Amino acid sequence: MIQKKDILPRVPLYYSVPMLVICIIALLILVFISRVEYPVLLLQVPTIPSNAINVSACSSLSQNNAYYILNQSLNANSGCITISGSNVTFDGQSKYWITGNGVNGASGVYITGDNVIVSGLNISTFFYGINAIWTNNSVLRSNFITDSGSPLLLHGFDNGLAVRNIINNSGSIFIEDSKNMTLLNNLITNPVNYGIRVFHYVDNYKINIKDNVISGTGASYYSLDVGSALSSIVYLLLENNSFSSYRLNNTFVDLRHPTFGHINFTQLMNVSGTNLSNDIKLDYNFAEVRSDLNPGLNKSATIYFSGLPINITNISILRNSAICPSNICVNLTNFSGGNVIFNVTGWTNYTINWTGASTQSQPQQPAQTMSINEPDPNEQYTTAAFPVTFRVILSILNGSVKFSLNNGLTNTTMINDSSGVEFE
Question: What predicted TM-score, i.e. pTM, was given to this entire model?
Answer without folding.
Answer: 0.76
